Amino acid sequence: MPLEKILHIEDDESIRVIVDMALVDISGYTLVSCASGQDAINQVEQYTPNLILLDAMMPGMDGLQTLIELRKKSSYQQIPVVFMTARIQQSEQQEYLDAGAVAVIEKPFDPMSLGNQLATIYQTFITAADNHSSE
């Protein structure tokens, strides 16, 4: 199953605009952008993405709290989550991975390669899931 639909959760409007250009205009994905974790929680009934791109540091509900809330929805339990953060210390990255993220992308990111980067992460996740289910 190819990567087509992405849910992006990011409180910084300028980053949302850049990600929109990178993923929609350059890579051709369908994208729903949310300005907060609560906004994303409110969207889950209307939109089921193939992948979630999630900012780690947001006011109110941060990325980890948002992930916990999204995972409470049955349709969101198996969707791969990629955190995007400027905080790239190994311990913080490990915290995101331990919480269920499949990857962490460092800010600032390269908008020209973001779509390909997410496609690679997604394919790796799908391949691993397929291999795991066939064991």
TrEMBL record:
Entry coiled-coil feature ranges: none
Classification lineage: Bacteria, Pseudomonadati, Pseudomonadota, Gammaproteobacteria, Alteromonadales
Positions carrying 4-aspartylphosphate: 55
Keywords, alphabetical: Phosphoprotein
Pfam family, one: Response_reg
Domain Response regulatory: residue ranges: 5-122
Name used for this protein in its record: Response regulator
InterPro entries reported for this sequence: Bact_response_regulator, CheY-like_superfamily, Sig_transdc_resp-reg_receiver
